[in-house]
């Protein structure tokens, strides 16, 4: 039962969903404050290679995770300075970050090209729990970061909708003028959550490197996961818990092409099934971001607009 | 901090410019070379980086041998995409006075042929190429073989010989008779490898099957790891591969399975899983060709190296390959080298059970170079 390929594929999907959840959650926090950061893909790549270099030179995976996360926050900081402090166009700044991050990652990654991480993040062991039919391999054979990502999503929903700082965050994204009138610093809140978002994206990129990919090769390390994460936020209607389901769905669609081939289900050409995650991204964006879509109710109303006090 | 990034970015940009412009005077910088230098300007174009521990890395080892034996400094251009951009690269190298250019990827063929026509003074060598593909009949731009530029040669080798031998190791290692093969693109080179591997497997394990999964990549650690995991999920206990990464090895080791690599001897990537790997030794060909060009001739043949000539080799054995299996493989290897055995010798059936080669019949080289089907024992689609 536990060696059934669909059970194992579900387990693989949950693992792949980890980076998606962390990156999308990072984007969600940033966007909830009213800042649109399109640079996720660039941040993921730079964090991934930073975590690789740190883990490889120190021999510690955990140091790799810390360095990768901090680098993610640092890159998001560039976006925060440009778009919040200097009020630059957020779309341009975000896209610039993608190009900059990709270039920087390739530059830093030159000596690591084709190298494999010597130790990867190992799954936790739960003893007899892993032997429970179906549930065992699906739920009890992951590493600590995967569990952390799922727990963080649920915790984030509570933070966003049940706490005062969460309320302030949402208000900043919806109506910065009112937050300003309350005597709170709009710029301060936006910068803080952009940095925090970058930290989560960085953790996602580091995990992708140190647990999933295990070898560095330029842009192929992320394969566009950063863009899928951005679409996922729209798909989830900016709600952290709905994000989990979206991430599982996309994680499954990323693993599915290979499962179908391994199962000899070949009446659909593999070239087509490998397109599925990206096709699903397109469909999700079209279906869920139509004007008037229920999903857009969660969208921060001031998303993408720099806050200028005079324009109140 | 911003200053640091600015510096880093400037350094990156500067290093790119240096990489792009440098080297035109490299042949004159070789005064410190320890051996007597040969007066020839050589350049090599890579699809990836020389650090990939796979395809390009293995070519780089051959180039290093060339540099050492001839006392010249070779100009390297890395990360050149196939197609229009590669044409510019060849054009630039020809204009810079390089006399011999090695192009190490399949997709460089037609751009290289165009530049070869414009620069008859430059000797061009296309790895993994087939001149047939440049002719009208093969979908190319030249009327026939006679119309092809005489300063263009191709070089490749019979990896199928080493693939067959690695198949023996895999066939002996599998416990449940299910072997997985992480395949790159459905082109003759890859199909030939899978078929030879499968024949090797079945020579020692008649009931075993080789299950193929396509990734449509040459180098993508994440995707190749996912493909490996799906095969392992489906129950295979040995993995083989065609791509240039070690991802299948890492995945196999994590699940306690065995692994046949490719291109380079990279046992250290997954020492417990490692069985062996078909590997390449390009050095002798590079040295020979550079010497010919220095002497004023350009080899324009379609060179097809083999184990006998030493271009195709088999990597070291992993600890789990027992002495009997090793000596069986050595025996077959000797037979391949002395010419008494070839992997594609009948009787061989196609995947659907229909006969392909009669008993004792050997496949023609042409049939091997245009192979578009699987042999019996392979599970999966040869169309990708």
From TrEMBL, chain A:
Location (main, coarse): membrane
Subcellular compartments: Cell membrane
CDD domains: TM_PBP1_transp_TpRbsC_like (cd06580)
Record membrane topology: Multi-pass membrane protein
GO cellular component terms attached to this protein's record: plasma membrane
Gene Ontology molecular function terms on file: transmembrane transporter activity
Transmembrane segments annotated in the record for this chain: 6-28, 35-55, 61-84, 91-109, 144-161, 193-210, 216-236, 243-260, 266-288
Keywords for this protein: Cell membrane, Membrane, Transmembrane, Transmembrane helix
Coiled coil: none
One matching Pfam family: BPD_transp_2
Protein name from the UniProt record: Unannotated protein
The organism of origin for this protein: freshwater metagenome
From TrEMBL, chain B:
Protein's UniProt keywords contain Signal: yes
A GO cellular component annotation in the UniProt record: plasma membrane
Residues annotated as transmembrane: none
Residues in ABC transporter substrate-binding protein PnrA-like domain copies: 40-339
Keyword Nucleotide-binding: no
Sorted UniProt keywords: Signal
InterPro entries: ABC-Purine-Binding, PnrA-like
PANTHER family linked to this entry: ABC TRANSPORTER SUBSTRATE-BINDING PROTEIN
Protein name: Unannotated protein
Organism name: freshwater metagenome
Species classification: unclassified sequences, metagenomes, ecological metagenomes
């Amino acid at each position: 039962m536990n060696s059934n390929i669909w059970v194992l594929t579900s387990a693989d999907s949950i693992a792949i969903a980890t980076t998606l959840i962390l990156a999308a959650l990072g984007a969600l926090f940033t966007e909830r404050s009213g800042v649109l950061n399109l640079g996720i893909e660039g941040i993921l790549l730079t964090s991934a290679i930073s975590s690789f270099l740190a883990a490889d030179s120190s021999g510690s995976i955990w140091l790799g995770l810390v360095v990768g996360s901090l680098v993610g926050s640092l890159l998001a900081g560039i976006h925060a300075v440009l778009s919040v402090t200097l009020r630059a166009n957020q779309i341009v700044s975000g896209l610039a970050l993608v190009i900059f991050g990709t270039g920087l990652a390739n530059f830093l990654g030159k000596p690591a090209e084709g190298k494999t991480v010597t130790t990867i993040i190992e799954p936790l062991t739960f003893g007899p729990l892993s032997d429970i039919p179906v549930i065992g391999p699906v739920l009890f054979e992951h590493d600590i970061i995967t569990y952390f990502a799922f727990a963080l999503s649920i915790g984030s929903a509570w933070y966003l909708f049940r706490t005062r700082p969460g309320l302030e965050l949402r208000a900043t994204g919806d109506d910065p003028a009112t937050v300003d009138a309350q005597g709170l610093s709009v710029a301060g809140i936006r910068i803080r959550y952009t940095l925090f978002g970058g930290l989560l994206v960085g953790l996602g990129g580091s995990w992708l490197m140190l647990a999933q990919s295990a070898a560095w090769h330029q842009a192929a390390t992320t394969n566009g996961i950063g863009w899928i994460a951005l679409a996922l936020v729209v798909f989830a209607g900016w709600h952290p818990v709905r994000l989990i389901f979206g991430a599982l769905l996309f994680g499954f669609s990323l693993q599915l092409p290979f499962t179908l081939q391994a199962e000899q289900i070949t009446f659909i050409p593999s070239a087509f099934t490998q397109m599925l995650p990206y096709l699903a991204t397109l469909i999700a964006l079209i279906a869920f971001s139509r004007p008037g879509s229920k999903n857009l109710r969660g969208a921060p109303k001031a998303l993408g607009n720099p806050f200028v006090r005079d324009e109140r | 901090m911003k200053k640091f990034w600015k510096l880093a970015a400037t350094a990156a940009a500067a290093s790119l410019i240096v990489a792009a412009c440098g080297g035109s005077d490299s042949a004159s910088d070789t005064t410190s070379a320890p051996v007597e230098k040969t007066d020839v300007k050589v350049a090599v174009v890579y699809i990836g980086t020389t650090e990939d521990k796979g395809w390009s890395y293995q070519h780089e080892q051959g180039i290093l041998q060339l540099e050492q034996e001839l006392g010249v400094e070779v100009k390297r251009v890395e990360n050149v995409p196939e197609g229009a951009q590669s044409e510019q690269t060849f054009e630039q190298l020809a204009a810079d006075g390089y006399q011999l250019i090695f192009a190490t990827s399949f997709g460089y063929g037609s751009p290289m042929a165009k530049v070869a026509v414009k620069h008859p003074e430059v000797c061009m060598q296309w790895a993994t190429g087939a001149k047939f593909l440049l002719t009208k009949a093969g979908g190319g731009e030249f009327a026939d073989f006679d119309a092809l530029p005489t300063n263009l040669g191709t070089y490749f080798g019979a990896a199928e010989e080493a693939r067959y031998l690695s198949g023996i190791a895999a066939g002996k290692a599998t416990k449940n008779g299910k072997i997985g093969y992480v395949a790159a693109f459905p082109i003759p080179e890859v199909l030939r490898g899978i078929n030879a591997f499968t024949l090797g497997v079945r020579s020692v394990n008649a009931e075993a099957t080789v299950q193929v999964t396509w990734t449509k990549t040459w180098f993508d650690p994440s995707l190749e790891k996912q493909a490996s995991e799906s095969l392992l999920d489906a129950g295979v206990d040995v993995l083989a591969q065609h791509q240039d990464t070690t991802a299948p090895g890492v995945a196999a080791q994590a699940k306690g399975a065995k692994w046949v690599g490719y291109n380079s001897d990279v046992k250290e990537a997954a020492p417990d899983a490692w069985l062996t790997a078909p590997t390449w030794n390009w050095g002798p060909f590079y040295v020979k060709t550079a010497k010919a060009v220095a002497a004023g001739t350009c080899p324009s043949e379609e060179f097809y190296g083999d184990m006998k000539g030493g271009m195709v080799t088999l990597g070291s054995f992993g600890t789990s390959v027992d002495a009997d299996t090793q000596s069986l493989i050595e025996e077959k290897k000797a037979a391949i080298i002395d010419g008494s055995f070839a992997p594609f010798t009948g009787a061989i059936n196609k995947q659907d059970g229909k006969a392909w080669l009669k008993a004792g019949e050997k496949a023609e080289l042409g049939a091997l170079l245009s192979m578009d089907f699987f042999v019996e024992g392979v599970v999966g689609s040869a169309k990708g």
